[in-house]
Specification:
- Its EC number is 2.1.1.17, 2.1.1.71.
- It is a multi-pass membrane protein.
- It is found in: Endoplasmic reticulum membrane.
- There is one protein chain.
- This protein has one domain.
- It contains seven helices and no strands.
- It is an all-alpha fold and 187 residues long.
- The chain is globular, with a radius of gyration of 18 Å.
Length: 187
């Protein structure tokens, strides 16, 4: 069972009306929406492939845009955490190192997913007609259905713990919800 009183106390530290917090929420929600809308649009129209002269060039350009948007999202996330109070009871070595371990596992999932899929597999190549020869079933796909989404969420969770940030924990929940919706949309 979830202790609602503890959650209310924890999120009493978060100012959800703070401009930086709102920008972070919007950037978190925007990214998967953007890449799914653009990917489906490309799949239906092939407009990006025509503009860039080939599906590969278009996919690489979209991948670069997604990477930049992810950097912006991470920056907004970090700035929102820094502008909000820390949870003093969590500002200890054990919380920091637990967060570091969680981030390391998340990074392992993200990097190993990228290595298993390659650039075009990671960045919507299938929407551009760039298909893999067979379904990837190697690690981490052998143990998780969506290791890149789970890994990314774990990185944000770890980062939040490392900074003893209730705002970061709430933003991590927004990341998890955004990815859950993306998975439903993509599936």
């Amino acid at each position: 069972q979830v202790d609602v009183a503890a959650m209310v106390r924890l999120f009493g530290y978060v100012d959800v009306t703070d401009t930086g917090f709102i920008v972070a929420v919007l950037s978190i929600a925007f990214n998967p929406l953007f890449w799914n809308v653009v990917g489906r649009w490309e799949h239906k129209t092939r407009a990006l492939s025509q503009v860039f002269g080939s599906p590969h060039a278009a996919c690489y350009c979209l991948g670069a845009v997604i990477l930049v948007l992810n950097c912006v999202r991470s920056h907004c996330f970090t700035e929102a955490m820094k502008s909000q109070p820390k949870l003093e009871g969590w500002d200890h070595h054990w919380t920091y190192y637990s967060g570091l371990a969680i981030s390391a596992v998340g990074t392992l999932f993200v990097i190993s997913s990228f290595l298993a899929l390659g650039f075009t597999g990671t960045f919507l190549g299938d929407y551009f007609g760039i298909l893999m020869e067979e379904k990837v079933t190697s690690f981490p796909f052998s143990i998780l259905d969506n290791p890149m989404y789970l890994g990314s969420t774990a990185i944000y969770l770890g980062w939040s713990l490392m900074h003893a940030s209730p705002a970061g924990l709430l933003l991590t929940a927004v990341v998890a919800i955004s990815y859950t919706i993306a998975v439903l949309y993509e599936g």
